[in-house]
Amino acid sequence: MASMRRFNTAGPCDPEMHYMLPPEPRLPEARGLVAQNGYFVVHAPRQTGKTTTLRALARTLTAEGTYAALHFSCEAGEPAGDDYVAAQRAVLADLRGRAAIEFPVELRPPEPWPASTPEHALSDGLHAWAARCPRPIALFFDEIDALRGESLRSVLRQLRAGYPDRPRAFPAAVVLCGLRDVRDYKAASGGDPSRLGTSSPFNIKLDSLRLGDFSEAETKVLYAQHTAETGQAFSEQALARAFELTGGQPWLVNALARDVVEKLGMVPPTTITDEHLEEAKERLILARQTHLDSLVARLHEPRVRRIIEPLLAGTVLIGDAYDDDFQFVRDLGLVAPDAPARVANPIYREVIVRALATGIEHQVVLEPRRFILPDGRLDLRLLLQEFSAFWIEHGEVLESGIGYHEVAPQLVLMAFLQRVVNGGGYVDREYGVGRGRIDLCVRWPYRDAAGVRTWQREAIELKVWAPRKPDPVERGLAQLDEYLEGLGLDRGTLVIFDRRPDAGELAVRTRFEESRSPKGRKVTVLRG
């Protein structure tokens, strides 16, 4: 019988409705900090489980009878902007509304809030509530970074001012939860470089906790709940591939499984394979649901582009501005939290490139079936010949219209490839800081002579000949050698885009050459 529970991709998890991990172990330090009457910060990218975890902790603390612990959102204060009076009204209204749902009458705030000056409405309200509440109060301010400018300043200052009066006359514990650590909150949204007017806007904080992604073991535990309730198993290869594709990002882990389960159905319960997950990954990328779309919308923000463009190009990140920009992009969840600098997971890596190349892909007019050989294999040589003709005719115009100018040629080629491969095969991409290249592995399914479905794999390395630099062909051949060895292939393609001002006309410099790697592998070199 089908389970009543589902993999959740929208809003907080409910244990009666959704498969979910026990929330408290995901943030083990939080309970101890509350017990110390601590004021602290919890931050993580969107849709990683912050609300689920903190709401569960607040309810547990209240149920145990030790605290009046309340989780509520500051999001309603966002439209107020710098109008701190309106922002405080919105925050107090949401606080009261959540308390009416979560608490018995004796634990709720006073009705009405006490008379106060506009500058102190929040602190006066919290003082009055703490004085009458029979338990110490623990408040979880979710979406704190929805508040901006003077509104955010006002809330932080009032919390700081009331801190010495805790626990008898002010909340004993306060948790600020958002995308970023509070030390990085800006005075306004949109990248305003000014900070909050103090070197430490919340200098009473005891700690900053980052809610992490799922581990591989946790991903398996989550998927096992579905198997236990339905009998529908995930193969070991599928479990490994799910973690590899998502990097444990909670929304992706749930979205991938939800897509597979809904597409396969439950009668009879079919074992989920790694191939099912590959197909689900493609559907997620093409559908670009809200979570993915919100990340894509950020790609053309200057501070995001300053990090993602060098990652794509394989160059290095340097300078103080890069440090702050990198922290911002990491807090968005686009890049991994640990070294080396890289996009957080393969799905994001794919989404970024496809989003940047979508406009180009729509301009590629060709019939993909032309590139299929009689035996079902992909004719890569013909595909590259068609690309070279396309590049000669349209390359300069397309380059000038791409915001990510440093990687414009690579994006054009990847868009052309994607246009041909869509609907049949896959293009796996590897890129990152310091690599100096983009590696592509085209995987195309076909049936061998015995009728067995197998995979054709083709390796392509993309490099740029930069101004005032030597011809990168030797380095490229050596790098391609390493890539081919890792894939177990004996031949590949090296594409070199010449970006020197004196490189000459595209029609003259675009040509094919045959070469050998240092270890003797056959290499087709396409210069453009």
In words, what does this structure look like?
The protein has 528 residues and is an alpha/beta fold. It has three domains: 187 residues, P-loop containing nucleotide triphosphate hydrolases (Rossmann fold), CATH 3.40.50; 72 residues, Helicase, Ruva Protein, domain 3; 235 residues, no CATH class. The protein is built from 17 helices and eleven strands. It has a six-stranded mixed β-sheet with strand order 6-7-8-9-11-10, sandwiched between helices. Helix 8 packs across helix 9, helix 11 packs across helix 12 and helix 13 packs across helix 15. The radius of gyration is 27 Å and the shape is elongated. The N and C termini lie far apart (58 Å).
Describe the protein's topology.
Elements: H1 29-35, E1 39-43, H2 50-63, E2 68-73, H3 84-102, H4 121-132, E3 137-142, H5 149-162, E4 173-178, E5 208-210, H6 216-230, H7 236-246, H8 250-264, H9 274-287, H10 290-296, H11 302-313, H12 320-332, H13 346-361, H14 380-400, H15 408-421, E6 426-430, E7 438-447, E8 453-465, H16 473-487, E9 491-498, H17 506-509, E10 511-516, E11 522-527
Parallel strand pairs: 1-4, 1-5, 2-3, 3-4, 8-9, 9-11
Antiparallel strand pairs: 6-7, 7-8, 10-11
Feature tags:
Rossmann fold; 3 domains; alpha/beta; single chain; five-stranded parallel sheet; 11 strands; six-stranded mixed sheet; 528 residues; Helicase, Ruva Protein, domain 3; elongated
Number of strands: 11
User: Strand portion, in percent?
Assistant: 5-15%
Structural class call reads: alpha/beta
Q: What percentage of residues falls in helices of 4 or more residues?
A: 40-55%
Major sheet: size, sense and barrel closure?
Answer: 6 strands, mixed
Going across the biggest sheet, name each strand in turn: 6-7-8-9-11-10
Instruction: Sketch the topology as an H/E string, one letter per element.
Output: HEHEHHEHEEHHHHHHHHHHEEEHEHEE
For the residues shown, what is the average pLDDT?
Answer: 90
What number of domains? 3
Tell me the number of helical segments per DSSP (H or I, 4 or more residues long). 17
Rg measurement, Å:
27 Å
- The low-confidence parts are 186-200
Describe the global form. elongated
